[in-house]
Design a protein that fits this description.
Elements (H helix, E strand, L loop, with lengths): L17 H16 L17 H15 L5 H6 L3 H11 L5
Helix pairs in contact: 1-2, 1-4
InterPro entries: ACP-like_sf, PP-bd_ACP, Ppantetheine_attach_site
Pfam families: PP-binding
Organism: Kitasatospora cineracea
């Protein structure tokens, strides 16, 4: 290996499609709420979630998608579809 070679930066993973992102977030809601089904517009709190469990959702979003949302952002629209909109806005443009 030559010292003249430029450092190679790994490519960023591709951004998920809207449907993939929504599926991912719906799966997070199902897992943390221990429910078989969660609709895209299912309100986290009306489905039985609370603020402590919401932190698990936010942590899962950060791990899976590299986007750290605030609790206030979560409260603004606590649904898989609402979070998908916020995550997709925060993701870098697909390359």
């Amino acid at each position: 290996m030559s010292l003249d070679m430029p450092a190679v930066t790994p490519a960023a993973p591709p951004s998920p499609s809207g449907a993939e992102l929504l599926d991912s977030l719906t799966a997070v809601f199902r897992r943390v709420l221990e429910l078989a089904e969660v609709p895209a517009d299912g309100n986290f709190f009306l489905l039985g979630g609370d603020s402590l469990v919401a932190t698990r959702v936010l942590s899962a979003v950060a791990r899976a998608h590299g986007v750290e949302l605030t609790f206030e952002e979560f409260l603004a629209d606590p649904t898989p579809a609402g979070l998908a909109g916020r995550v997709s806005t925060a993701l870098p443009a697909a390359r």
